[in-house]
Design goal:
A hairpin with a 3-residue loop joins strand 12 (250-254) and strand 13. Helix 7 crosses helix 9. The strands form 2 sheets. An 8-stranded mixed sheet has the order 8-9-10-7-11-12-13-14, with helices on one face. The longest helix has 17 residues, at 176-192. It has helices at residues 12-23, 37-46, 56-61, 77-86, 101-114, 128-138, 176-192, 277-293, 303-317, and strands spanning 3-8, 27-33, 51-52, 65-70, 90-93, 118-120, 145-153, 196-203, 214-221, 224-231, 239-246, 250-254, 258-262, 268-269. By secondary structure, it is of the alpha/beta class. The protein has 2 domains: 3-116, Rossmann fold (3-Layer(aba) Sandwich); 124-274 and 301-317, Dihydrodipicolinate Reductase, domain 2. 35% of the residues lie in helices and 25% in strands. The chain starts with a strand and ends with a helix.
Length: 318
């Protein structure tokens, strides 16, 4: 039996998720809503079987809905998550949980107190590339872990496919540390345990509105130093590079999915995916989400894990 999903927010992420859910064997999009009339009309045309609700509450209350996926900008996450919680639905939310940390903490307490299934869209929880890295770490193939580096660079920011999401360029809700760096902080804590912020710096434009142009941070994971840097300026290719440095071998995750290993020379790319890595990861993620909803073991990120990531991100941005 397919699990019914209501989607709140029909921007880039909501529309992408609609496509993925439509192709899924385990989930079915039942209803959706967005405050934008144009977004609602576009979704109705692209997905004619989808119920376009008159408001968020109606979408959540649509018969057959089991899970509410929240894909709107972060400032509204708590409002719709509480609405879903009051309806007794499982909640699947984009990150961050909230703009305000205190509100995020209250949301985590709320879903825990009500025993509601909760999940956050950190796809590294179920990615094949991460399984490969975990297996290398588990068998000691890298030797002693001596450090971890994350390097980000984006021109432009937001990325070309996100230009309509103008809030991503603004300090209040957006920025590339929240949008991209958070995924790798989640991955760091998944691989090495709880991280503590040691020091950080951030540079903003003078307009008091735009998001960061530079950040750097040093974390500590049980003695493992983790260095994070990000920039958005100049010209050149986007860079999303995560490296685990080991005393025997090192491993690199490039552009979200490409894994390479170095044993003293250059990087050797590992062939770990079939012809369509995105589809493969989506299938794995939805399988893991289905497991979570039925009480089986799952590696999908929880609200509590997302809160841990958010605490680090917001501390850097302060």
């Amino acid at each position: 039996m397919e699990t019914g999903v209501a989607i709140i927010g029909l921007g880039i992420m909501g529309t992408r998720m609609l496509g993925s859910l439509t192709a899924s064997d385990a989930f079915s999009p039942i209803a959706a809503w967005d405050p934008s009339e144009a977004a609602r009309a576009a979704a109705a045309t692209a997905f004619p079987d989808l119920e376009i609700a008159s408001d968020a509450a109606s979408a959540i209350a649509t018969p057959g809905v089991d899970v509410v996926y929240i894909a709107c900008p972060p400032a509204a996450h708590v409002e719709y998550a509480v609405m879903a919680a009051d309806a007794g639905k499982a909640i699947y939310c984009e990150k961050p949980l909230a703009v305000d940390l205190a509100e995020a903490e209250q949301l985590v307490d709320l879903v825990a107190s009500r025993g509601l299934v909760n999940a956050v869209n950190f796809p590294f929880g179920a990615a094949r590339s991460v399984d490969f890295i975990e297996a290398q770490l588990a068998r000691g193939a890298l030797g002693d872990i001596v450090g971890v580096d994350l390097r980000l660079h984006f021109v432009p920011w937001p990325r070309a496919w996100q230009q309509d999401a103008t809030w991503l360029s603004e300090r209040a809700e957006g920025g590339f540390l929240r949008e991209v760096g958070s995924h790798f902080i989640f991955l760091t804590e998944k691989l090495f345990g709880s991280a503590a912020l040691v020091e950080s710096s951030v540079t903003y434009p003078d307009d008091n509105t735009s998001c960061e142009t530079h950040f750097s941070a040093q974390l500590d994971c049980s003695g493992i130093p983790v260095s994070l840097t990000g920039t958005s300026f100049g010209v050149g290719p986007d860079i999303v590079e995560f490296v685990i440095w080991g005393s025997e071998r090192s491993i690199k995750l490039d552009n979200w999915a490409e894994v390479s290993i170095a044993s003293g020379g250059g990087w050797d790319v590992q062939e770990i995916f079939g012809p369509d890595p995105r589809r493969e990861n989506n299938t794995r993620f939805f399988g893991d989400l289905a497991a979570l909803l039925t009480g089986r073991p799952s590696s999908v990120a929880s609200f509590a894990e997302a809160l841990s990531v958010q605490r680090i991100v917001e501390a850097v941005l302060e």
